[in-house]
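Reopening: structure tokens for the zinc ion complex, inputs below.
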Amino acid sequence: MPGSKEKACMNCRRITTGNECDNCGSTNLTTNYSGLIIIIDPEKSEIARELGLKKPGAYATKT
Ligand SMILES: [Zn+2]
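Re-run output (same inputs, fresh job):
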């Protein structure tokens, strides 16, 4: 499905389907990522803290 491939931001790991990151605005995206985590409450999530994520959303664990 062209255009609907999910990409991960190389900068902040955010998963996006657009051509730029909707979190940090970076266009440095990759389809070559592994792992997917959903952050619901960054303040209470150990993983979010570890990865330095401050906004809820979907993130790649590895880019
Ligand atoms: Zn980003």
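Residues 9, 11-12, 14, 21, 23-24, 26 surround zinc ion (CB under 6 Å). The two ends are 22 Å apart (CA to CA). Marking as resolved unless the reporter disagrees.
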